[in-house]
Design a protein that fits this description.
Layout lengths: L1 H12 L4 E6 L4 H12 L13 H5 L10 E8 L12 E2 L8 H20 L4 E4 L7 H7 L4 E2 L5 E2 L7 E8 L18 H5 L5 E3 L2 E2 L5 H7 L16 E3 L3 H4 L19 H5 L2 H6 L2 H7 L9 H15 L1
Parallel strand pairs: 3-10
Antiparallel strand pairs: 1-2, 2-7, 4-7, 5-6, 8-9
Pfam family, one: QueG_DUF1730
Subcellular location: Cytoplasm
InterPro entries: 4Fe4S_Fe-S-bd, 4Fe4S_Fe_S_CS, QueG, QueG_DUF1730
Amino acid sequence: MEHTRFIKELARELGFDYCGISEATQLDDDARRLEQWLKKGMHGSMQYMENHFDKRIDPRKLVDGAKSVITLLYNYFPAERQREDAPKVSKYAYGQDYHEVIRARLKEMLARMQERIGQIQGRGFVDSAPVLERSWARRGGLGWIGKNGNIINKQSGSFFFIATLITDIPLEYDGPVGDYCGTCTRCLDACPTGALVAPGVVDGSRCISYFTIELKDQLIPEKMKGSFDNWMFGCDTCQDVCPWNRFAKANNETAFTPIPAILDFTTNDWEEMTEEAFKAIFRHSPLKRSKYAGIRRNLQFLNLGE
């Protein structure tokens, strides 16, 4: 109990908004769902989703002797928005790359746990290993998995990064909360490409985020023309229409302060940007994941769809 209380206080001190803890065990139900999702090819060209299946469903294969999975939510909802007439960028990418920001916090968290508790083993992850983050967030009572596939927190909505810290010490465990989507289907109805094929099931191979970020060295299929709703990098439509996000509050993380170009660039600015300028402006931004060539491709595709 004392260790659990310390960890939750430490999480708040390090800037995490929510902390939930679950027993490290094999996720049998999630394993069946993931297997079916992969069999249907909903991961598109993201072949890495097929790798390390055993590790995805069992944290004890990532950390020897794992007893507990600590799940953390970090708010990224911005106070400001882009120009209405500009190609749209997903809100998570407004500021610095979250991997760098959150990885440092996880490292500090584990170090301070070791100082306080003793010789414990652990590993922190933020999109960096085969971990089913949303499943652990749900089991840790941080929210439910909504019809849009996102973790939704009843107090604060869904604009959160999810991080996990797997450790070999037993702690007090939280339990899941209820599902509060009810009969609402706003996200299913609003998805520009019909990627939400059933409540909680995202066909990744039809998602705008997949086409604009994950699809590498390929042209976006012509059949998607005119369906991107001006999204250039990622897509927030299913979160923007979610009623629970009326409770979203602006984050306090200076590293997530929007890069001025994200807020100010016009369509013309994006189209005239050189590769050198892109590398200088977005060197610490998630946009570097698509690279300059990917952003150019996405812009050209949006123009085709007009």
